[in-house]
């Protein structure tokens, strides 16, 4: 009997999940409108709502990009990498298959999603770090944004090269430090003093005779 009722139970579970997702979306919309009007949010977002009510096996056996895209489609909004990671965990995603250690999964997921952006990618990364599906956004706008980012990157690289090029010139213009005079030995100083006296006597014999008198 239990085997016969299995398909019916699974169908009702899927229907319930859709209904719960609708309730969660409605709550988020109400909270957003309240926030826009300067009022406090009315509904607290539970862990289940943040994860998008995923099934325990929803992402099992699927690739990273496929699972992440499916979750974003369920949420209908861009999400931060930590939200996507929590959803993948709840949906039974097998991180061992992709070789991500537990303490490095968030960074690995962010890198994987970032590599799948651009004109040929499935995702788009917003400036706040969240990822959305590229198909959600206007393609002309994305191209302009990418062009602006490339120009800004090129400008920074040009300024950096100019600074590096200016450093040798500035160093060459700096005056050389005066060398510290080295103390001469006493014997050398005595010989120099005697030599100076002889030179003085040769130039002024009267002064030498006056000193000896």
Biggest sheet overview: 2 strands, antiparallel
- Main sheet: strand order: 1-2
- CA gyration radius, whole angstroms: 39 Å
The number of helical segments is 9
Question: Unreliable stretches, pLDDT < 50, 5 or more residues?
Answer: none
Helix and strand composition category: mainly alpha
Q: Tell me the total number of β-strands.
A: 2
**How many separate domains?**
3
Global morphology: elongated
Arithmetic mean of pLDDT: 79
Residues in β-strands, percent: under 5%
Task: Name the helix and strand elements from N-terminus to C-terminus, one letter apiece.
Answer: HHHHHHEEHHH
Q: Classify the helix fraction into a percent range.
A: 55-70%
Q: Give the N-to-C terminal Cα separation.
A: 142 Å
Report what the structure shows.
The chain is built from nine helices and two strands. The chain is an all-alpha fold. It folds into three domains: 45 residues, no CATH class; 85 residues; 58 residues. The chain has a two-stranded antiparallel sheet. A hairpin with a 5-residue loop joins strand 1 and strand 2.
């Amino acid at each position: 009997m239990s085997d016969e009722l299995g398909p019916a139970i699974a169908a009702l579970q899927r229907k319930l999940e859709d209904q719960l997702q609708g309730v969660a979306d409605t709550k988020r919309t109400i909270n957003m409108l309240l926030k826009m009007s300067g009022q406090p949010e009315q509904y607290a977002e539970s862990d289940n709502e943040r994860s998008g009510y995923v099934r325990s096996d929803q992402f099992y056996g699927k690739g990273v990009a496929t699972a992440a895209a499916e979750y974003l489609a369920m949420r209908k909004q861009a999400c931060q990498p930590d939200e996507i990671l929590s959803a993948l965990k709840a949906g039974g995603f097998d991180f061992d298959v992709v070789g991500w250690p537990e303490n490095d999964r968030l960074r690995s997921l962010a890198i994987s999603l970032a590599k799948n952006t651009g004109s040929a990618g499935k995702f788009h990364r917003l400036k706040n770090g969240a990822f959305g599906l590229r198909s959600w956004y206007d393609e002309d706008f994305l191209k302009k944004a990418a062009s602006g980012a490339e120009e800004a990157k090129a400008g920074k690289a040009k300024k950096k090269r100019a600074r590096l090029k200016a450093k040798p010139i500035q160093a060459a213009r700096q005056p050389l430090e005066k060398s510290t005079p080295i103390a001469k030995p006493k014997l050398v100083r005595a010989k120099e003093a005697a030599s100076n006296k002889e030179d003085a006597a040769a130039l002024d014999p009267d002064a030498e005779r006056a000193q000896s008198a």
